[in-house]
Amino acid sequence: MNLHSTLLPPHAEMVRAMLDRDTAYEGVFFTAVKTTGIFCRPSCTARKPKPENVEFFAHADECLSAGYRACLRCKPLDAAAIAPDWVHALLKSVDAGPEQRWTDAHLLAEGIEPLKLRRWFKQHFGMTFHAWLRTRRLGMALGGIKQGDSIDSAAFDCGYESLSGFRDAFKKSFHTTPGRAANSEPLLFTRLTTPLGPMIAMAERRGLVLLEFLDRPALTREVEELQNRYGYAVAPGHNLHLQQIEQELAQYFSGQLKQFKVALHLPGSEFARQVWAELATIPYGQTTTYGTIAARLGKPGARRAVGLANGQNRLSIVVPCHRVIGADGSLTGYGGGQPRKAFLLRLESAARQITRQLAF
User: Fold this and answer.
1) Helices assigned H by DSSP within the chain
2) Looking at 321, 324, 344, 345, which residue is catalytic?
3) Is 71 marked within a binding site?
4) Same domain, 102 and 31
5) Is 40 part of any known ligand binding site?
């Protein structure tokens, strides 16, 4: 069992789902077969292995880092970007009736096990389904306030029966009061699925502000900094920048996109922004070092400071800090984990090589 076993269903339940090819568990776990070195989706139609020859992982990148290869039949790296049908149906119902209160009884009536839903949302959104719903409703209220609605109207429209309850929930979620939020910049976020696990993207009107893997240890601190230092009110939602980065990420992972075009907005110190600007110039499929970046900035002795700013980059992949390696050629640290860094470098190297071959 892997280190993220606390996020996974019980072992016996996963064995049953694997043997029954249960599609309800798509995106919840991956099956890795020790005897073949291959990992699959739960619903893979290939011949099922003996349970004692199997281990389970929460994310596709964990399978890769453990030395397993993706199954050619069920293509689990493609499936990693697909939420199970029962989640799609639920999200569609939420969009159709945003005012509906989803109790456990309502979920069970729809054939959804509340505990399984809780696990899936915690794994893929970093919060429970009910917490996500609550934040979503408050985000709708925030949008109304920004457009000139009164606080009373916003509170009652999103289902709160008392203003005090609405104000308390609003402040807890957005770290500001409804009145001050009218003058703050909304930072909308959405979950994105990738072959390396779920990511969270955040964008305001000027551009993409954050793109991180949900299991990045520094993610909570980064979001709190955006709220407390830069005054953002964070809420679930969509805008053109979030739609664009979702499309561009899919193209990047398929090896088709080598330069992101989505607009960016990078709050930070002047030095940090200089470092991030240098990161953005590292060519696709190539690498550099902290020392080289420091020299380009005219501060050859600032290698450590460059490393610190590199680690503070909030835009994983788009601002390619994964292309920075140690002077000795080692991968060095990476906020998303070294297995992901190795995967990204391999992906870019392979795509670059294919482009060269096609050119001849």
Assistant:
1) 11-19, 60-65, 76-79, 85-96, 104-109, 114-125, 129-146, 151-157, 163-174, 178-181, 219-228, 240-253, 270-279, 290-296, 303-311, 338-359
2) 321
3) yes
4) no
5) yes
Taking 70 as the pLDDT cut, the residues of the chain under it are: 1-8, 24, 27, 61, 65, 78-82, 123-126, 146, 355-360
SS3 138: helix
Sign of CA dihedral 193, 195, 201, 205: negative
What distances in angstroms separate CA 33 from CA 48, 49, 192, 221, one per listed residue?
9, 7, 27, 37
- How many structural domains does the chain have? 3
Say what the pTM is. 0.66
Ligand-binding annotation for 63, yes or no, is: no
Catalytic residue, from 28, 40, 81, 223: name it: 40
Which percentage of the chain shows pLDDT scores above 90?
33
Residue where a domain stops, chosen among 134, 160, 186: 160
Please count the CA atoms within 13 angstroms of the CA of 279 that sit on its side-chain side: 28
Instruction: State residue 68's pLDDT score.
Output: 82
Rg, the chain, Cα only:
22
Q: Cα–Cα distance between 64 and 303 in angstroms, integer? A: 31
Residue 158 annotated as lining a ligand binding site: no
- Are residue 353 and residue 266 in the same domain, yes or no? yes
321 annotated active-site: yes
According to DSSP, the residues that pair with 191 across neighbouring strands are 200
Q: How many Å apart are CA 32 and CA 67, to the nearest integer? A: 10
Pair 62, 131 in one domain: no
User: What's residue 81's pLDDT?
Assistant: 54
Instruction: For tokens 């104000």, name the residue.
Output: 167
Partner residues linked to 324 by β-bridges? 288
Structural domain for 37, as ranges: 5-79
